[in-house]
């Protein structure tokens, strides 16, 4: 069922927590609302759920304005970060409780509980109490309870945040499967860009109460519209430079120059003398000993840190002017204090006008 959020704003006293937010979710789509802590995500979700009455704007479901409809009559289910299962009820009773006061024959009620426990692979825990379940099982029980009444929209507010990494990834895959099987229109809220990218058909990125980008996860990652989106979906990894020449693109940093031949500098923002912010995702950088550079553009620097994170090394290279770049490297890391060249393919460079903060290529 299509969900429409239209010009939503909300103030807590003086603070404008949500500032003119509009987006829609198509029937059956899974959209992730993603952004750093405090950017207003929960306030948006609570407005859709009906727990917050927005200061301005409107929420529409099935084409109807539901802004003033009470939460229980909206056809919306929510799973929160914290467990809200009733401890004195069994798992089965909790799921049945999700069906509320709906007029459903007892046999059908039974069937719905059994089907939804089956859906979340919890059929064998029906008689257990929440305290007897693991953290992941409790999340599944909450999902079953939320889905049992066949909501038009499922809201998931940071449902994975309290879980350890292995369990988080497992449950993330489960949520993807369950959402596909049920086809329920879903808004998934998270501050974790990896969870968002792994799950969502589409991302809506918020910062400071506003939407700053939206689109397919891969498109936003590969063509971030602003330095914030580049850093948020990847990792902060940028340097400033002055454009010496636009074609071939030649950048100056301090007393060094970087020629980025092959870069498509067809945007008007890339003009001689302009200052640009350059971003390269860490996985697109490679660190080489001086003298072994290829034809790829590169910047010289000194290794300041090598972090062994198991499946890769994170190599931090100081490139002068107080700026660092991090390269993710799977093998043969350099040593701290090595002088190196940090190289990247020309088409992996993201260029932003420093003043306007907008992508220029
Ligand atoms: P988090 O992930 O930390 O919950 P969020 O992106 O979900 O962050 P919100 O919880 O919507 O953001 O909060 C947005 C802003 O509104 C924050 O600055 C927060 O301090 C403020 N805020 C949220 N709830 C209230 C409240 N009940 N009263 C006053 N201010 C609030």
Automatic annotation (TrEMBL):
Q: Could you tell me where this protein is found in the cell?
A: Cell membrane
What is this entry's stated membrane topology? Peripheral membrane protein
- The source's domain of life comes to Archaea
- Any idea of its EC number? 7.3.2.6
Q: Does the keyword ATP-binding apply?
A: yes
Give the matching InterPro entries: AAA+_ATPase, ABC_SmlMolc_Importer, ABC_transporter-like_ATP-bd, ABC_transporter-like_CS, Mo/tungstate-bd_C_term_dom, P-loop_NTPase, Transp-assoc_OB_typ2
Q: Which residues form a coiled coil?
A: none
Q: Where is the ABC transporter domain?
A: 3-233
* Pfam families associated with the record: ABC_tran (PF00005), TOBE_2 (PF08402)
Q: Which SMART domains is this protein grouped with?
A: AAA
Q: Name one GO cellular component term.
A: ATP-binding cassette (ABC) transporter complex
Reaction(s) catalysed (UniProt annotation): tungstate(in) + ATP + H2O = tungstate(out) + ADP + phosphate + H(+)
Report keywords, A-Z.
ATP-binding, Molybdenum, Nucleotide-binding, Transport
PANTHER family per UniProt: SPERMIDINE/PUTRESCINE IMPORT ATP-BINDING PROTEIN POTA (PTHR42781), SPERMIDINE_PUTRESCINE IMPORT ATP-BINDING PROTEIN POTA (PTHR42781:SF4)
Similarity comment: family membership? Belongs to the ABC transporter superfamily. Sulfate/tungstate importer (TC 3.A.1.6) family.
Quaternary structure annotation from Swiss-Prot or TrEMBL: The complex is composed of two ATP-binding proteins (WtpC), two transmembrane proteins (WtpB) and a solute-binding protein (WtpA).
Function of this protein? Part of the ABC transporter complex WtpABC involved in molybdate/tungstate import. Responsible for energy coupling to the transport system.
Protein name per the record: Molybdate/tungstate import ATP-binding protein WtpC
- Protein's organism: Halobellus limi
């Amino acid at each position: 069922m299509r969900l429409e959020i239209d010009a939503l704003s909300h103030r807590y006293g003086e603070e404008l927590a949500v500032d003119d937010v509009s987006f829609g979710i198509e029937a059956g789509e899974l959209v992730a609302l993603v952004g750093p802590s405090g950017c207003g995500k929960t306030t948006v979700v609570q407005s859709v759920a009906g727990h917050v009455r927005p200061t301005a704007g409107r929420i529409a479901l099935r084409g109807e304005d539901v802004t003033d409809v009470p939460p229980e009559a909206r056809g919306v289910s929510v799973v929160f970060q914290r467990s809200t299962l009733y401890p004195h009820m069994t798992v089965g009773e909790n799921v049945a409780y999700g069906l509320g006061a709906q007029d459903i024959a007892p046999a059908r009620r039974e069937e719905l509980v059994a089907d939804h426990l089956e859906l979340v692979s919890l059929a064998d825990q029906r008689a257990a109490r929440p305290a007897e379940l693991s953290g992941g099982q409790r999340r599944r029980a909450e999902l079953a309870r939320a889905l049992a009444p066949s909501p038009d929209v499922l809201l998931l507010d940071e449902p994975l945040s309290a879980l350890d990494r292995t369990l988080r990834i497992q449950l993330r895959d489960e949520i993807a499967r369950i959402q596909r099987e049920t086809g329920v229109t879903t808004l998934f809220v998270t501050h974790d860009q990896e969870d968002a990218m792994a799950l969502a058909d589409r991302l809506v990125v918020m910062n400071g109460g506003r939407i700053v980008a939206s689109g397919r996860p891969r498109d936003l990652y590969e063509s971030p519209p602003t330095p914030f989106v580049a850093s948020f979906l990847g990792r902060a990894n940028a340097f400033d430079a002055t454009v010496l020449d636009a074609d071939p693109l030649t950048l100056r940093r301090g007393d060094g120059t970087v020629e980025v031949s092959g870069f498509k500098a067809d945007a008007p923002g890339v003009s001689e003398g302009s200052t640009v912010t350059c971003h390269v995702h860490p996985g697109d950088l490679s660190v080489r000993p001086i003298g072994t550079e290829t034809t790829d553009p590169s910047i010289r620097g000194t290794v300041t840190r090598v972090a062994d994170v198991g499946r890769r090394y994170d190599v931090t290279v100081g490139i002068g002017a107080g700026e660092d770049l991090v390269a993710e490297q799977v093998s043969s890391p350099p040593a701290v204090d090595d002088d190196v060249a940090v190289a990247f393919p020309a088409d992996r460079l993201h260029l932003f006008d420093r003043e306007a903060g907008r992508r220029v290529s």
